[in-house]
Amino acid sequence: MEQGKSLTEVLGIVASEMQAHLGHGRVADYIPALAKIDPRQFGIVAASCDGQVVAAGDADMAFSVQSISKVFMLTMALEKLGGALWRRVGKEPSGSPFNSIVQLENERGIPRNPLINAGALVVTDALLARGDPAALIDGFVEFMRDRANDESVSIDSEVARSEGETGFRNASLANFLKAFGNIHSDVNDVLRVYFHQCALRLNCRQLARAGLYLAHCGVDPVSHAKVTTAQRARRINALMMTCGHYDASGDFAFRVGLPGKSGVGGGILAIAPGRASIAVWSPGLNEWGNSHVGVLALERLASLTGWSVF
Ligand code: GLU
To answer: How far, in Å, is the centroid of ligand 1 from the Cα of 7?
Structure first.
């Protein structure tokens, strides 16, 4: 930690420096229910493996996790299916936007990785396995309540509905995947689950808590719940590092040096293995669909703490 600063001091510095940047970036107005959110908000929480929780800014404001849900659904899918999942989805960075369809044609319906929309739809389908979408949505909420250690965690049904009404690209991706035989369930059931998982609401405190198992070899260091194996936790972190920020994943690795997953709700979950799980939120997005201020804040946090996987 720089000059012996405490984590509380570091987060205070980051939060005050970020004030000058608030308002930059655009909210995700392609989802109508997210278009009305004030971009001038910022929250950050670091939950450490030794049980410390440090917060600054709007740490208790709930937001739509959007694509951050992909990390948790991937964890659930790996627990259910193990390595067989990798026959249906790759592990390579895409270098393309989150909702891109172009690679799917050439690569015959095998998405590059589970953290882009196409890959996440396959993961959702693998978990659904022609079952009941409502039961999978409930199972996901249950999983997230356990991870966040908070029974109040829930889905914003207005956001889910709003995305359902306007998610034509996701519907195209799902139908395209179905045409290649890489969606097994009914396309509408898969989309329904996907839109609901994205519409989960968490605040930074809950999100940081939820990600702790990834900082601690797959085991929640507070509840001692074994969420996944150490090897899977390492692999999920590797995918977050290489694919967690879409076509800006290299830039995020370069600037922050930690595994991270962004969502168009403006949240980012970053993992400092062996140390902490960090959640940051600010709704204004940069041109790659990642939180403009969130990335800046994590860059400062990493530099002030010295946390890095490199
Ligand atoms: N629900 C969003 C979509 O599918 C998620 C995208 C994101 O958060 O990056 O468009």
So the answer is: 31
| C-beta separation of 243 from 237 below 8 A | no
The string of pLDDT tens digits covering residues 104-116 is 988 899 999 999 9
Q: Which fold has domain 7-63+202-305?
A: Beta-lactamase (3.40.710)
pLDDT band at 1 (very low <50, low <70, confident <90, very high): low
User: Of all protein residues, whose CA lies closest to atom 10 belonging to ligand 1?
Assistant: 99
The domain over range 67-198 is classified in CATH as 3.40.710.10: yes
Q: pLDDT tens, 203-216?
A: 999 999 999 999 99
**CB of 156 sitting under 6 A from ligand 1:** no
* Model pLDDT, residue 37: 93
The arithmetic mean of pLDDT across residues 235-242, rounded, is 98
67 in catalytic set: yes
Q: What is the location of CATH 3.40.710.10 in the chain?
A: 7-63+202-305, 67-198
The residues, any chain, with a CB within 8 Å of residue 103's CB and separated by 6 or more, are 94, 96, 111, 112, 118
Ligand 1 binding pocket includes 266 (Cβ within 6 Å):
no
Q: Which amino acid belongs to residue 189?
A: D
211 in ligand 1 pocket by Cβ < 6 Å? no
Burial (CB < 10 A; 0-12, 13-18, 19+), residue 306, is exposed
Assess whether 246 carries a catalytic annotation. Answer: yes
124 lines ligand 1 (CB under 6 A): no
pLDDT in tens, 135-151: 999 999 999 999 999 99
